[in-house]
Amino acid sequence: MAFGRGGVRSERRKRARTALKGPVILCWTDERGQDNYGSGRCVNITESGCSIELPDALPLRANVSLRLPELDISAFASVRHVTRKGMKFHIGLEFSQPVRLPLADGELAEEVQA
After folding, report:
1. Total number of domains constituting the chain
2. Do 47 and 39 contact (CB within 8 A), yes or no?
3. pTM for this model (two decimals)
4. DSSP characters for 55-78?
């Protein structure tokens, strides 16, 4: 939850999030220069980023390569926030370039309220 001045919630997203429950595959380089691979679950997505769940945290500001096989999307992104929720980590990623979301046949039609 983001708060601006005076404790009022501020929403910085330019586009509404869309719920997406699907697998995500990631690759990133850690601070030692080692390549790491992981997989998790996408929670929601916009043209400019997505929220994912992983069993392990990613370093803040790390650059990642990700693949969303169900949408046939491959992208580069930066880790913008990491929050532990129970046994998993919720990670916010910002794409380096906007991605085109498939919206045909009702896919990704359900928008998530902030």
Report:
1. 1
2. no
3. 0.78
4. SS---TT-EEEEEEGGGTEEEEEE
